[in-house]
Amino acid sequence: MSDFVKFYLTPILAFVLVANPKTYELTRSVLGSWVASQDGLAKTGGLILHAIVFILLVSLLMRLLGGVSRYSVSYMNHEKM
């Protein structure tokens, strides 16, 4: 898989999925009204929750797609020295 897909399209698709108003409506129906309004507009708690979910989702997808690992980052730092 190309680096473009791993590093650019994966986070974009994850963001569209997590930041979608329908996702907020679904989350509201499961977790309650502190997440979003009835129209799917995020409240502060919902925004924090979805930001955490976004970070975890992108991290998981990057690891599954072979994008980033602890070893590649440490290897890259040694290579520059």
Topology:
Elements lengths: L2 H17 L1 H11 L12 H21 L5 H11 L1
Question: How would you describe this structure to a colleague?
Answer:
- The protein has 81 residues and is mostly helical.
- It has one domain.
- The chain is built from 4 helices and no strands.
- It is elongated.
- It starts with a helix and ends with a helix.
Features:
74% helix, mainly alpha, 81 residues, single chain
Write a brief structural summary.
The protein has about 80 residues and is mainly alpha-helical. The protein contains four helices and no strands. About 75% of the residues lie in helices and about 0% in strands.
Give the helix tally: 4
Category by helix and strand content: mainly alpha
Averaging pLDDT over every residue, what do you get? 84
| Rg (C-alpha, Å) | 16 Å
Largest sheet: none
The tally of strands reads 0
The share of residues in helices is over 70%
Instruction: Note the beta-strand portion.
Output: under 5%
- Give, in order, the helices and strands: HHHH
Intertermini distance = 28 Å
Shape verdict: elongated
List low-pLDDT spans.
none
Provide the domain count. 1
